[in-house]
Amino acid sequence: MSQVSGARETAMYADMAPEEFRRFGYAVIDRVAELLAHPERVRVFPDVRPGELIAALPAGAPDEPEPFERILEDYDRLIPRATTHWNHPGFFAWFAVTGSAPGILGEILSAALNVNAMLWRSGPAATELEQVTTSWLRGLLGLPERFAGHINDTASSSTLYALAAAREAMGLEVRARGLAGRADVPSLRVYRSEEAHSSVDKAAITLGLGLSGVRAIATDADLRMDVRALEAAIAEDRAAGARPMAVVATVGTTSTTAVDPVPEIAAICERERIWLHVDGAYGGSAAVVPEHRALLAGCERADSIVVNPHKWLFVPIDCSVLFVRDVDQLRRAFSLVPEYLTTSEGDEVLNLMDLGVSLGRRFRALKLWFVLRYFGRSGIAAAIREHIRLARLFASWVDDAPDFERLAPVPLSVVLFRRRPPGLGGPALDRYNERLLDAVNATGEVFLSHTRVRGAYAIRLAVGNLRTREEHLRRAWVLLNEAVRVADLKN
Ligand code: PLP
Predict the structure, then answer these.
(1) For residue 34, how far is its CA from the centre of ligand 1 (angstroms)?
(2) Span from the CA of 241 to the centroid of ligand 1 (angstroms)
(3) 412-416, 437-441, 483-487: least confident range
(4) How far apart are CA 379 and CA 50, in angstroms?
(5) N or C: which end of the chain has fewer CB within 10 A?
């Protein structure tokens, strides 16, 4: 790192001088490079207590300007050690992700351009690159050309927008007249499996359906939506006077990565004229791999699909792509143009503000463009293929270990398992595995999370970081087996 002086080179109200920026810019890049080169030098899961960082920082913002050198020193001292490192190869919790180097560089440039792509005019490159990159992604996933993609912050927003479009497509004029106090609007229903992500329910809350408007459909032995149960629920609701609005099928559920039978669900939605939204936030990316292309079978018949490049496509958080079969349906739900946002380009251009709630938008397409180009189809496919291989390898160790058992199939890159010491069952078995997870996470070398599978506590290992190699998986397995001793002692 270059030597930096504490003295500011510009007036206190001016931005950093170019030379000063270069110096600190290199210093920051050095830190990024170090994190990427030696991620294992930090604990993946920090050893901090809640409130520790707050206590270490002043209660108010500084009155006077501070030298950037001191700000960086405080960053070094306080922030990495209080961070859960999602870019660490030992990160196996929730869905493991990667902020890849080309994606990080894209983030830096998009911050420098500081584009607010609400209108084509306010960000021509951001608007058109979003159209290009989402169209590339659509091609990589094998979705038909009629799907238009656009980028949101998260899958939760993408699903909310898709369901808002579904509600508008019902012809109930909810946009104009709202829902409250209307005797002419029946109860609306959204169907999702018992295993679907909570973002579906949050969308129902936001859209005025209420949680009572969400039907949780039972799953089969492999935790996939049971289509017969779906049909029965739809029939029951219609008979009771409710109106089905949308079915949300999931390709890669959050808990167990189960893949709902989309072709059969699509057939029901077509017959019943119900909007089909597919949540492929995590699993959808695997369709880039030729031998996993079938994962999105049936999605060509969906009305909308969400895939998160920030989950399994190596783009730094945040980046979620919503594909819609008819972009006008989104526009009908959201477009609202005050005078000060009208432009002379008219219908000639796409104005991204028309496709969601937020007016302002970050230039997220830049990092997606960098990542898609830097890795290419073959690089992305090879990485995802390797993650699936690693997860299956880990599953084979679990299967071969006498006191461990696997709790769900491994269609993608997540393994659910528990240790089952002889004679232990029920809540005691759950508590035992909780202790096992805590003990392994306390090492700081690996970080796993948990879920419940049909009520049973399961330790959950997700592979998804580009730097995770077989050696990291082996280490996780060794640490788990060592942690057994700790858990046994406390038994
Ligand atoms: N859908 C699925 C299947 C998920 O696993 C998740 C998060 O893990 C989400 C949606 C929500 O994603 P986001 O954090 O982008 O809102």
Answers:
(1) 29
(2) 32
(3) 483-487
(4) 40
(5) C
Burial class (CB in 10 A: 0-12, 13-18, 19+), 4: middle
Q: Is the CB of 250 under 6 A from ligand 1?
A: yes
- For the whole model, what pTM was predicted? 0.95
Q: Select from 153, 159, 199 the residue to mutate for testing ligand 1; criterion: most ligand atoms less than 8 Å from CB.
A: 199
Q: Answer yes or no: is the C-beta of 279 below 6 A from any ligand 1 atom.
A: yes
Question: pLDDT tens digits, residue range 374-432?
Answer: 999 999 999 999 999 999 999 999 999 999 999 999 999 999 999 999 999 999 999 99
Question: What is the distance between the alpha carbons of residues 224 and 325, in angstroms, rounded to a whole number?
Answer: 24
Atom of ligand 1 nearest to the CA of 320: 15
Ligand 1 pocket, residue 277 CB under 6 Å = no
Q: How far apart are CA 303 and CA 246, in angstroms?
A: 10
Using the predicted structure, report yes or no on whether residue 7 has a pLDDT greater than 70.
no
DSSP state of 38: -
Tens digits of residue pLDDT in 216-241:
999 999 999 999 999 999 999 999 99
| Pick from 65, 186, 125: nearest CA to 349 | 125
Reduce the DSSP state of residue 391 to 3 states and report it: helix
Q: Does ligand 1 come within 6 angstroms of the Cβ of 197?
A: yes
Residue 491, pLDDT score: 58
Structure-token pair, residue 473: 């998986």
Q: Is 457 in the pocket of ligand 1 (CB under 6 A)?
A: no
Q: Which of 274, 311, 280 is nearest to 297 (CA)?
A: 280
Burial 281-311 (b: 16+ CB within 10 A, else e): bbbbbbbbbeebeebbbbbbbbbbbbbbbbb
